[in-house]
Amino acid sequence: MAGAPGGCSSPSSSRARPGIRAPHMPLAGDDSLWARSGMMRAMRRLPFLTAAALTALLSLTSVASAQEARELFLQGQAAYETGDYDTAVQNWERAYELDPRPLLQYNLAQAYERLGLLDQAVAAYRVYIENTPGDDQRAQNARARIASLEQRVGNTSIRLTGGVEGAAILVDGEDRGRLPHPDPLRVDPGSHRVVVRAEGYEDFVSVVAV
Question: Is residue 87 domain-shared with residue 184, that is, in the same domain?
Fold first, then answer.
């Protein structure tokens, strides 16, 4: 059997420190309901009634989504406060799909930090800043966290050397290109499973801590 198709190394980096704990604010209900039109002429009454029924249905859907989003937000808050950051992320991501309020991205960024998902934390902080008017304390905190995280993320990477040309590179199951790969593979701090795979060769598998 042929040998493994590649190898890897990683520079050392410091462990991720906990992020800034965000104040939690419950979501408000969505009060912007669809407006109904005024009285219409008798000859247009049937279309008006049809449109009104559709408007009412859409309004009920909007209110239900906002209520579900609020419940998910509170469940995520409870999970975050007990240290269950995975559950917090799941609930807040779903809440944001239902009711995209910027505050959810601010809280998601903190949960991502706690999980060591620094790239995702930076992206969430940016979404919060871009969708928040003015320059409140949270926006200032978000900018400071972005600067700190970008510096740390830039120092955590995996470099592959040698190997079979054309071999596929997988990091934690994600396709990251093929050999040769002269540029370092940027990753979040923590342990990562690296697989280099080429036809006719045994897989090279390594768990790398950065």
Answer: no
